[in-house]
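If your schedule permits, I should be very grateful for your opinion on a structural question. Please examine both parts with care and let me know of anything in them that strikes you as inconsistent. The record follows directly beneath this note:
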Amino acid sequence: MTTDADAPRWDEDVSFCCHEEVLDEGSVLVTAAGELDLHTCSEFQRVLAAARDRRPARLVVDLSEVTFIDSTALAALIVVQRGMQRPLDVVVTRPHLRRILVVTGLDTVFVLHRSIEEARRRAA
């Protein structure tokens, strides 16, 4: 479990950061911020795999602070989805990112949420 000291600071001058956090016994949250592309995807894949390896009943991926996403990141989400018993809960607040997920048909693979609060309510 991460602490506030371990969590990345979103105001730092970095192009990407992500981390995982245990929400409760059955849920893990992966939060990403910045540009999610070929150059940053290896870190995203590592964090997603670590979260999946905890074998949570529910994996929430918060992309609300992601400003750009490419096909390598979408592929990483699909790979993790294949190892889960239920659909990933993906938080997408930016319209252009939501559109990418809809156009690619991934809105039928993942459960999309407009806020982290909405994703948490679904779990209750």
In short: Residues 41-53 form the longest helix (13 residues). Residues 8-13 have pLDDT under 50 and may be disordered.
